[in-house]
Design a protein that fits this description.
By secondary structure, the chain is an alpha/beta fold. The protein has 19 helices and 7 strands.
């Protein structure tokens, strides 16, 4: 993240205990290769580990938050110390009555500061570290207190069962998309409630228009155009765990690839612009930039893009999401960075983390 947001928002606690961007979209967009040096916004670590699975030469994860880096560090320790099934239990994707024991097996692989962080958060570990963030607690409030006022358990099960395209369309329009649903959604996912309960009011500084209406339209897409039975993000929001689908980094078929290549990964508590300005770093080939550009002014965004282009090899790729504030390469940088709009649109149509308004893929000229 750029330092602009660091001056206005608090990063001392876990904001995101999971990565809420679709790693399948990220990997197809970036196509990391064995000789690549990748930069990744750490967040909770899932998508950084997804990059590791592609065996690049190096992955550098950066974040302003020591808490977010502790989430990544514990995931790395879990891949070193636990089986695949045990990782799912530690995260909360699967049921467990002994998560603290699993944490203690991971603990020797953590630094002293990382141990101190997690040693003091036994309750969060016992609940599953995938539910430890402010954003996840926001979804838990929605799941436990708000959604039952609109839809009962049987109707939720029908939504999650998916079905054919025609069945999903008919169910959503005839049974799910009620006036009460739309009314509740617009209140709970408004700028006011999301800013205070889920994210941070400062994250909406550059957002214009209705927050809830845009997310509601994308929710229709996720429930009808995509299949909820194959959507791990929707399953967690509605159930609090993963049922029939998992994000990329947690799938059994990717476990050994991640475990075998963890030594290519390093993480640092610093801003992206500080990394780019560090002597001896780079040039870089691939960037997972999450949705960090939403949190900065258009001027700061353009300046950071200039830094990225200057620190990158020709052909380097940048992938990032817009949640609510539109960001993409300005026309003034057409000679430096080229948009890959058709490929981005194709991938965005299948983005299982559906609440974003756009996916952006660009290439350094």
């Amino acid at each position: 993240m750029a330092t602009e947001i660091a001056e206005r928002a608090d990063f001392s606690s876990i904001r995101y205990a999971q990565c809420w961007e679709d790693a399948d979209v990220l990997l197809e967009a970036l196509e990391p290769k064995p000789d690549h040096v990748c930069v990744s916004i750490a967040s909770a670590g899932d998508n950084t580990l997804a990059l590791v699975a592609r065996r690049p030469r190096k992955v550098i994860a950066v974040d302003l938050s020591a808490a977010q880096l502790a989430c990544l560090a514990l995931r790395v320790a879990a891949f070193r110390a636990l089986s695949h099934g045990e990782i799912l239990q530690l995260l909360g994707s699967a049921a467990s009555s002994d998560r603290w024991r699993l944490y203690l097996e991971c603990r020797p692989h953590l630094s002293p500061a990382e141990r101190e962080f997690w040693d003091s958060r036994k309750i969060l570990v016992d609940q599953g570290i995938g539910s430890a963030g402010k954003f996840e607690r926001y979804f838990e409030l929605f799941r436990r207190r708000v959604l039952p006022l609109v839809h009962n358990q049987a109707r939720m099960e029908r939504l999650l069962a998916g079905g054919t395209d025609r069945e999903r369309q008919a169910f959503y329009e005839q049974e799910w998309n009620t006036l009460r649903w739309r009314w509740m959604f617009r209140i709970f996912f408004s700028r006011f409630f999301m800013g205070r309960l889920g994210r941070d009011p400062e994250f909406f500084r550059y957002v214009k228009g209705s927050v809830a209406d845009r997310i509601l339209a994308r929710t229709h897409h996720a429930a009808v155009e995509l299949n909820p039975a194959e959507n791990p993000y929707m399953q967690w929001i509605l159930c609090g765990y993963h049922r029939s689908a998992l994000p990329f980094a947690l799938r059994a078929e990717n476990f050994e690839a991640i475990r075998a290549h963890l030594d290519c990964l390093e993480w640092r508590q610093q801003s992206l612009d500080d990394l780019l300005a560090t002597p001896g770093e780079g040039p870089f080939d691939r960037f997972n930039l999450s949705d960090i550009f939403e949190y900065m002014s258009p001027e700061k965004f353009a300046a950071l893009l200039e830094q990225i282009a200057a620190a990158s090899k020709p052909g380097a790729r940048l992938a990032y999401w817009n949640l609510l504030a539109p960001r993409s390469r300005p026309d003034s940088m057409a000679h430096r960075i080229a948009p890959l709009k058709d490929r981005a649109a194709e991938l965005f149509a299948n983005d299982k983390a559906w609440f974003y308004s756009a996916f952006v893929l660009e290439e350094v000229v």
